[in-house]
Automatic annotation (TrEMBL):
It comes from Cyprinus carpio carpio. Transmembrane segments: none annotated. SUPFAM superfamilies: Retrovirus zinc finger-like domains. This is CCHC-type domain-containing protein. InterPro entries: Retrotrans_gag_dom, RTL1-rel, Znf_CCHC, Znf_CCHC_sf. The lineage of its organism: Eukaryota, Metazoa, Chordata, Craniata, Vertebrata. The keyword Metal-binding applies. One of its GO terms (molecular function) is nucleic acid binding. Residues 197-211 form the CCHC-type domain.
Length: 227
């Protein structure tokens, strides 16, 4: 229309091509700049430019590529959320009806999601099916997180499997002063055999009557000795 209304302005094919290229945007504008600067043969006339643009940017061609990609699309190990976003993006470029998209989306789901979905009532719409798959995948993810052992539970399981009792050790009433090292078995036997105090190591008394400060001194004997 511009060419017909302004024949003097667009008197040559080059002017028509240049004008058409200025109307392009986005990736098409980048493509137009490249073919113009490289003096591509498609810039020889407006008709050749239009034919090349249809070949490069024809949505039917893009739709066929999207359809092939969509037919091979699977959820795999990813989430239903990521799978559904990619599915919708490709489906928007295809000419498939909703029934075909519904069937393709369902069979592209991971097996773990499919097993749960087949036990439920399937929604008749694509949007409903996607929402159901999202809920099932979210629930399965929560269950999987609950199965992961924490550091504490893993340590407790290790103790049980190794036969180690997790209960705190029983207090050993061996006579010893705070800060004093625990007697070895040999030392205790030596003191017993020689009649020495197990607490202070001297003769003449036993640990329960030791005046060094044994915590096992019997109160009634202490009172009796002080009378």
């Amino acid at each position: 229309m511009h060419f017909s209304l302004q024949p003097r302005t667009f008197a040559t094919e080059q002017s028509k091509v240049a004008f058409a290229l200025t109307l392009l945007t986005g990736r098409a504008a980048l493509w137009g700049t490249a073919v113009w600067e490289n003096q591509d043969p498609c810039c020889a006339s407006f008709q050749t430019l239009a034919a090349e643009m249809r070949r490069v940017f024809d949505r039917a061609v893009a739709g066929r590529e999207a359809a092939r990609t969509l037919a091979e699309l699977k959820q795999g190990g990813g989430s239903v959320s990521d799978y559904s976003i990619e599915f919708r993006t490709l489906a928007a470029e295809c000419q498939w009806n909703e029934e075909a998209q519904w069937d393709m989306f369902l069979h592209g789901l991971a097996d773990r999601v499919l097993r749960e979905i087949y036990a439920l009532d399937l929604p008749p719409t694509l949007n409903g099916l996607i929402e159901l798959a999202l809920r099932v995948d979210s629930r399965l993810s929560r269950v999987e997180r609950l199965k992961v052992p924490t550091q504490f539970s893993g340590a407790a399981e290790t103790r049980r499997s190794s036969g180690v009792d997790a209960v705190s050790p029983v207090y050993d009433p061996e006579p010893m002063k705070v800060g004093r090292a625990r007697l070895s078995r040999e030392e205790k036997e030596r003191r017993r055999s020689q009649g020495l105090c197990l607490y202070c190591g001297t003769a003449g008394h036993f640990a329960y009557d030791c005046r060094v400060g044994s915590p096992l001194r019997r109160p009634h004997q202490h009172q009796h000795s002080s009378r």
